[in-house]
Amino acid sequence: MQVYMLKDVERVGLAGSMITVSEGYAVNFLVPRKLAVIINESNRDFFKNKKVKEQVSAEILNSKVAMLAERIKELRLNIKERVHDDGKLYGSVGADEIVALLKEKEIVIDRKQVVFDKSVKFVGEHKVTIRLSSKLQPQFTLKVEALKQAA
Which end of the chain has fewer CB atoms < 10 Å from its terminal CB, N or C? Predict the structure, then answer.
């Protein structure tokens, strides 16, 4: 039985794809949970056209994301934080600070997309990864400097 996937189901299919599954699996699991729609002769052309439109929009989105990834790869951002005498920060640089720095460069991301290799607790250069998609994860360099305090 052919079904059109409405949502991603692990080891079955991705949203927007037409797949063949057993009739029992489709009727008892996929359709009741609104994960898929059964394809019959009357709606086959509709779902084929919908798949083509989704592929075109996905290609456009992928090209925009790829351009954003290139912009992020070229970045070298600086941030000034208060530090102890040994160069250790009072706190650590978090995802919110990274999001704010990127927003200044007109790059809007969610704080959940920021991935640190190690926590940023010392002065120096650190690599920060931005997870745009499962395949696109550009890195940029974050330079943490000591904030000069007036004595």
Answer: C
- What pLDDT was estimated at residue 134? 79
- The helix/strand/coil state of 132 is coil
Give me the domains of the chain, ranges plus CATH numbers: 2-67 (3.40.5.10), 69-146 (3.10.430.100)
Q: What are phi and psi of 4, to 5 degrees?
A: -105, 120
Measured between alpha carbons, how far is 40 from 15 in angstroms, rounded to an integer? 18
Cα angle, residue 38 at apex, residues 34 and 41 outer, rounded to 5°:
150
List pLDDT tens digits, range 61-86: 888 888 989 999 999 999 999 888 88
Say which DSSP state 27 is in.
I
CB 79 within 8 A of CB 143: yes
Percent residues over pLDDT 70 in the chain: 98
